[in-house]
Amino acid sequence: MNHEKHYVCSECGNVSKNPGTCQIDDCTQQGVALHECHCKNNKHESIVNQFKSSDENQEAEGSKINLLDLDSPNP
Hints:
The protein is built from one helix and three strands. Strand 1 and strand 2 form a beta hairpin.
């Protein structure tokens, strides 16, 4: 795909020439609308990285877990 408009899944990077939804069976975004992209290098950085980085930030914030050592005699 050259410089023409195309559509990309923000999760798996699936590319389509036509608008629609992701059709990849094992993608968590299957059935979710593809995002319009106009990239020139086929890396789709404005789509894939934008959504991945916001997801990674949310995961990092949500992963603050307190662990308890149940084998320790001191609670």
